[in-house]
Write a structure and sequence with these properties.
Keywords: Cell inner membrane, Cell membrane, Membrane, Transmembrane, Transmembrane helix, Transport
Order of helices and strands: HHHHHHHHHHHHHHHHHHHH
Protein name: TRAP transporter large permease protein
Main location: membrane
InterPro entries: DctM, TRAP_DctM
Number of helices: 20
Structural class: mainly alpha
Radius of gyration: 22 Å
Largest sheet: none
Number of strands: 0
Function: Part of the tripartite ATP-independent periplasmic (TRAP) transport system.
Shape: globular
Helix content: over 70%
């Protein structure tokens, strides 16, 4: 058996047996090294795991995880919901539109879909249920809308993509994700409004409209967070990694002194929670380094890329095939694992066809976002159904419906790359093809 095949079989077999993805990656890489190289090369395992996480940009990941937790607990979601309700007013589908709008704004703070899903679900599910929305619909909508956090900057997934793909400017990725993220959110608005009106959910005559001025003033500290992060990046005031430090500091000020929802004891608990979540992420990245080094040294990734190229010499055919494969992977794995496993295989294809790496990274992120609320795994959906107190399978129909609507946004970005590339080009970031 070839080392390439053995490495992939060990990884796939471990996953089927329920081994956590981090250890499945490490076992697969170690098996490839043992058979394809030399038992002596197992001495590189420690070096590879360390080198995988000893990268300055990765500091941003635990910091943005902490930022998401801070804003989730600081009462930000409640203030944004009230402001969105004041903007939209009582109407059929109004609460559904509020969900999408709030998730888009929250995505500009945390970069984490599950964190946004939890924060918005805690605030919105009771009022949506009272207004007549079925719980499965509400849970699926919040899960799908919160998936846009993977696109709206700052995005933890895009940070990782910039590290895996050499030469990609993270600032360009952040800027490129903004319009596709908004487009993905907008693709949910019309179906939500139509379904609410068709089914008579949310009687406009029974709703109340909060005072616009008062709700805006209350939401202003939260609304300023994305402006601070993106403005600082654009002006060159701080790097993306430094932006994460600024976001944490600003979140603490808002949570403790403005909204007064956080105490020092709460902050200590959030630090511990962020440490545990970050630890899981870093373990995946570190052990994936073994898999990546083995795959590169053995030529496994190059062989897989050649196999894909042998299927067709038409770039659009392979693009569609890749999108389908990534979508299927997104239904089973988290975004970090997908980027670490699939991206090394796709880099040769990007170079062969001259695909813009910034645009391609946004397509991957949009695809993975859809996977976050598409069964069977659907991590965002797991969060919202647990809060709603319903079984996951009850949401399958609605989740597939929203998957189709968001796929329309993905197809538009695929056909018109300027949707993603116009903003980073206007801001002067490097978006050139290699």
């Amino acid at each position: 058996m070839s080392p390439d095949l053995l490495m992939l079989l060990v990884f796939g077999g471990a996953m089927l047996l329920g081994v956590p993805v981090a250890f499945a990656l490490g076992l697969g890489g170690a098996a490839g090294i043992l058979v394809g190289l030399s038992p002596d090369m197992l001495a590189t395992l420690g070096t590879n795991t360390y080198n995988s996480i000893a990268k300055y940009p990765l500091i941003a990941i635990p910091l943005f995880i902490l930022t998401g937790l801070i804003f989730e607990r600081a009462g930000v979601a409640a203030s944004l919901v009230r402001f969105a309700q004041a903007l939209i007013g009582p109407r059929h589908g109004g609460l559904g539109l509020v969900v999408v709008l709030v998730c888009l704004i929250m995505g500009g703070m945390s970069g984490s879909g599950p964190a946004d899903a939890a924060a918005v679900a805690m605030v919105m599910l009771p009022s949506m249920t009272k207004a007549g929305y079925p719980k499965p619909f509400s849970a699926a909508l919040i899960a799908s809308a919160s998936s846009t956090a993977i696109l709206i900057p700052p995005s933890i997934a895009l940070i990782l993509y910039s590290i895996v793909v050499p030469g990609v400017d993270l600032r360009a990725l952040f800027a490129a994700g903004l319009f596709p993220g908004l487009l993905a959110g907008l693709s949910l608005l019309l179906p939500v409004w139509w379904l609410a009106k068709r089914n008579g959910w949310e009687d406009p005559s029974q709703g109340e409209r909060p005072d616009l001025k008062a709700s805006f003033i209350q939401a202003l500290p939260a609304l300023f967070a994305p402006v601070l992060i993106l403005g600082g990046l654009r002006s060159g005031l701080f790097t993306p990694t430094e932006a994460a430090v600024v976001a944490v500091t600003y979140g603490l000020i808002v949570g403790i002194f403005v909204y007064r929802q956080l105490s020092l004891k709460d902050v200590w608990g959030l630090l511990g929670e962020a440490g545990m979540v970050s630890g899981v992420v870093m373990i995946i990245i570190s052990l994936a380094g073994i898999f990546a080094w083995a795959g590169t040294t053995l030529g496994t990734f190059a062989h897989l890329a050649e196999s894909l190229l042998s299927l067709s010499d038409q770039g659009w055919v392979l693009m569609i095939l890749i999108m389908v494969l990534v979508l299927l992977a997104g239904m089973l794995l988290d975004a970090i694992s997908i980027y670490l496993i699939i991206t090394p295989i796709l880099i040769p294809l990007m170079q062969h066809f001259g695909w813009n790496p910034v645009w391609f990274g946004i397509l991957l992120a949009m695809n993975i976002a859809i996977g976050q609320f598409t069964p069977p795994v659907a991590i965002n959906l797991m969060v919202t159904t647990q809060i709603a107190g319903i079984r996951l399978e009850k949401t399958f129909g609605w989740a597939l419906f929203f998957m189709l609507t968001m796929l329309s946004a993905l197809i538009l970005v695929m056909l018109f790359p300027g949707i993603a590339l116009w903003l980073p080009e206007r801001l002067g970031f490097v978006v050139g093809p290699w």
